[in-house]
Design a protein that fits this description.
The protein has 147 residues and is α+β, with helices and mostly antiparallel strands. It has one domain (26-146): PAS domain (Beta-Lactamase). It has 5 helices and 6 strands, in the order αββααβααβββ. A 6-stranded antiparallel sheet has the order 2-1-6-5-4-3, with helices on both faces. It is globular, with a radius of gyration of 22 Å.
Length: 147
């Protein structure tokens, strides 16, 4: 009769035996989609930092390019109120803009924003939705349309 012996050993380390990748989250999947999108859109994380911005949104929001926007807080976007002449939006009012409101409420948010670039002030329609992991918001996805 044949005799078989089995043993369990530690997996080999090295580049061929790296740990399995962690599952990709909703925030990173949406960030990848937004980075390649033709539409003006933006992804924020839970501390309101820009995770991804499409080229069209970068131009619309006054950034020189997408890379300069990544990692910046939402407050870096030059939002102004609807008065004439426009006044920078107070910090308290930033909580009410659609990207932040969608995250904090966990619901769809829509509203008008005014952005002051170097050459002009323009009005933008913003529609934002929370990005969820399970039932917890981890960020927001916002689409923009210049009016």
């Amino acid at each position: 009769m044949a005799h078989v012996e089995l043993s369990v050993s530690e997996p080999l380390a090295g580049p061929d035996r790296d740990a399995p990748p962690e599952p990709e989250g909703s925030l990173s999947r949406w960030a990848r989609a937004v980075a390649g999108a033709a539409e003006p859109c933006l992804v924020l994380d839970g501390v309101f930092e820009i995770v991804a911005v499409s080229p069209a949104a970068s131009r619309l929001l006054g950034f020189p390019d997408e890379e300069s926007a990544i990692g910046q807080r939402l407050s870096v976007i030059p939002l102004v109120d609807f008065t004439s002449p426009p006044v920078p939006l107070p910090e308290g009012d930033l909580e009410k803009v659609p990207p932040r409101l969608a995250y904090s409420s966990g619901r769809l948010a829509r509203g008008l924003l005014r952005v002051q670039t170097e050459t002009e002030v323009h009005t933008i329609d913003a529609v934002a939705t929370p990005i969820l992991e399970g039932d917890k918001p981890v960020g927001s996805l916002t689409f923009f349309s210049r009016i």
